[in-house]
Amino acid sequence: MTLKLGVPSKGRLMEKTFEWFADRGITLERTGSEREYAGRVDGIDGVSLILLSAGEIPRELAAGRIHLGVTGTDLVQEKLALWQQLVDPVAELGFGHADLIIAVPQMWVDVDTLDDLDAAAAAFRAHHGHRLRIATKYHRLVREFLQANGVADYALVDSQGATEGTVANETAEAIADITSSGETLRANHLKVLGDAVVLKSQATLWRSKSAEMDAAESDTLKAVLARLT
Amino acid sequence: MPTRAETLARASALRAGFEEAGAVPVEPPILQSADTLLDLYGEDIRARAYVTSDALRGEQMLRPDFTVPVVQMHMAHGAEPARYTYAGEVFRRQEDDPDRPNEFVQVGFEVFDRTDPAAADAEVFALIADALTGLPVTPVTGDIGVLMAAVDALDTTQPRKNALLRHIWRPARFRQLLDRFAGRTPMPATRAALLAGDVAQDAPAIGKRTRSEINARIDALRTDAATPPITAAEVTFIEALLDLKDTMPDALKRLHSLADDVPAIAPAVARVTARAAALDARGTDTATLTFQASFGRASMEYYDGFVFGFTADAHPDWPAIASGGRYDALTRRLGQGAAIPAVGGVMRPGLMLELEGAR
After folding, report:
1. Which of chain B's residues have a Cβ under 8 Å away from the Cβ of A62?
2. For residue A182, is pLDDT > 90?
3. Is A164 within 8 Å of chain B by CB?
4. CB under 8 A, 24+ apart: contacts of A158-164
5. Strands B24-25 and B82-91, sheet pairing
6. Nearest CA-CA distance, residue A60 and chain B, Å
7. B134 touches chain A (CB under 8 A)
8. CA B255, CA A41: separation in Å to the nearest integer?
């Protein structure tokens, strides 16, 4: 059998991953038509390429259905409880940098820290009769972060996209999202809280701790790791 | 490990014991309104409770404990005074420790009685202590009400007291606020600029939090900046209270001497004294019973008076074998205006059987 390598199936993340492997003498490419998710590996024997949504790669690694996978730190930590027991980081790939941050409207000149956010949440709840809502898709990471920092009187509301727009639409008062440059935040009149970096993320190559390997696959893994690290 | 049948049999026996002590058995539903629990506990409950949903009733939670449904039931149509007992599964999400069960059996006893709070506290504690007789467990008691009274007694503004009271159950945040109000942490540069009026308010107005709310908070921050810091002596007083852990007689001596310095905590200390007497009258050995003033602060935020827990001597890492406390404020929150003094406790028959099996 072959060693299975999971790679994001589209976009910049896929292209940069292909480049990163190419720099190390392993050629990854998509085969067939542009819409077909099949791939080929050259430059090393015994490895097969599995193209997946970046969001599903943590789950596949945890289940041991792929041996290696490329995805963001944010997705691994959000989707896998006890991720340290399920996957090992092999290499940080140096792209796909993004911080999970908490942002509030720029007009909130009185709110620059988590301490301010907590105080504003208390007053907001007393005034409006409901908790201060924070829109995010990173529920677990954000909840653990706010809990660890003693913020109360907030509620997380789910937002799977266009999160920066939720404040203007009045479905949330603040957001927690991934940002790379901050341009979208500024365009939506939001600012980042200085001490509220929940997580610094980048594209990372992970190794599954549970995927089973026969002798040949084990040898292939050693050869791949020797080439990559 | 005890079997499920053994655990349920022990739970029934314990519940029968509470019935003999005058409690009415109740059977709250497993599915609870998520709105009620979220409103009470906030987002933290999502990390603790399983959420499910349907299109008709929306989000429901698998009961993470019995206290909230028992209080709701009593506030809706309970006669006074009342004693309730129950036995059944509770469900807790576990994301960090695979060894902790996500479903376990609890047996509980709750007292709603206005006449003599100290006697009710002692009744709950003594009944549970009796049911644990012979097991290698040790109780700790505390009283959140003393700490609340101490915060209330500080010579400072009500907004500062409210901020500290709001974070009684979050020890790290409480400490941070205390340091800030005591002038021990430097003001962030952004705050200094804001108070100096150096921050332009030209960003477009978006969202539900209005400019008048923002200006109200800036006014509050200005007032706070002009308020003298909490004195070092007062910080020392709070620290002395938080550090207090001793046998009941020695703890009471210490509390009385603290109350000599800060008479405002005397009524709260008197309640601890009355409870100790009630425990003695119930046959509890208070000479060796531990009182720890900070006990119960890291638990869910509904206990506001007496708190207690029994831990397994050989397993300090286990959850409490039994625990409980007084939650007067919770009855007010759930009672829509009505309120009644209430105290209760729960036991873990599964852990009791494990302890017995290990001997």
Report:
1. none
2. no
3. no
4. A159/A135, A163/A135, A163/A136, A163/A137, A164/A103, A164/A188, A164/A190
5. parallel
6. 19
7. no
8. 74
Task: Please report where in the chains the tokens 């792209």 appear, as a residue.
Answer: A95
Nearest CA in chain B to A127: B213
Q: Distance between CA A196 and CA A219 in Å, rounded?
A: 43
* Closest CB from B44, B166, B199 relative to A147: B44
The two structure tokens encoding residue B91: 């469900």
Q: Which residues of B217-229 are buried (b: 16+ CB within 10 A; e: fewer)?
A: bbeebeebeeeee
pTM (predicted TM-score): 0.85
- Determine, for residues B211 and A147 on separate chains, whether the beta-carbon distance falls below 8 Å: no
Establish how many alpha carbons lie within 13 A of residue A23's alpha carbon, considering only the half-sphere containing its beta carbon: 9
Interface residue of A107, A136, A146, A190 to substitute, partner B, most B CBs within 10 Å: A107
In tens, the pLDDT along B301-311 reads 688 999 999 99
Q: How many CB atoms lie within 10 A of CB A49?
A: 21
Is the per-residue pLDDT at A35 higher than 90? no
User: Residue A81 has which token pair?
Assistant: 């409880």
3-state secondary structure chain A: CCEEEEEECCHHHHHHHHHHHHCCCCEEEEECCCCCCEEEEECCCCEEEEEECCCCHHHHHHHCCCCEEEEEHHHHHHHCCCHHHHEEEEEECCCCCEEEEEEEECCCCCCCCHHHHHHHHHHHHHHHCCCEEEEECCHHHHHHHHHHCCCCCEEEEECCCCHHHCCCCCCCCEEEEEECCCHHHHHCCEEEEEEEEEEEECEEEEEECCCCCCHHHHHHHHHHHHHHC
* SS3 label, residue B306: strand
Task: ipTM value, please give it.
Answer: 0.85
**CB distance from B250 to chain A under 8 Å?**
no
Beta-carbon separation of A109 and B205 below 8 A: no
Two tokens, residue B74: 């009593």
B166, B170, B201 ranked by CB distance to A109: nearest:
B201
How, if at all, do strands B290-292 and B137-143 pair? parallel
Best probe of the A interface among B208, B212, B301, by most A CBs < 10 A, is B208
